[in-house]
Amino acid sequence: MGKEQKDQDGSREPRSRDNSKRELIWNIIFLIAAVVYTISPMDIIPDVLGPLGFTDDVLLWAIIVGMGLLKRFRSSREP
User: Fold this and answer.
1) 3-state secondary structure string across 47-71
2) Alpha-carbon radius of gyration of the chain
3) Other CB atoms closer than 10 Å to residue 35's CB: what's the count?
4) Within a 10 A sphere around the Cβ of 43, how many other Cβ atoms?
5) How far from 4 is each of 7, 70, 75, CA to CA, in Å?
6) What are the tens digits of pLDDT across the range 8-67?
7) φ, ψ for residue 23 (rounded to 5)?
8) What is the reported pLDDT for 32?
9) How far is the C-alpha of 14 from the C-alpha of 61, rounded, in Å?
10) pTM higher than 0.85
11) Is 51 left (phi over 0), alpha (psi -120 to 50) or beta?
12) Which helix (H) or strand (E) holds 27?
């Protein structure tokens, strides 16, 4: 906290802004990967097995939504 780094134009900005950009990029990568996995015919549990085949897709989306809610909860509790 409180550490600053020089930007390309010489101005100083908090390091947390840099971290939020990095988190946004990773979130976008995870979302794209989840969409690709969901529509991909290659699954851990094949979708041809009916409802059982969709459990890995549902579990993946539950993990992603849970991670997003956890981040939002943690950020709302920070002073």
Assistant:
1) HHHHHHHHHHHHHHHHHHHHHHHHH
2) 18
3) 11
4) 17
5) 9, 27, 20
6) 555 555 566 777 888 889 888 989 999 998 888 888 888 888 888 889 889 999 999 998
7) -65, -40
8) 93
9) 33
10) no
11) alpha
12) helix 15-39
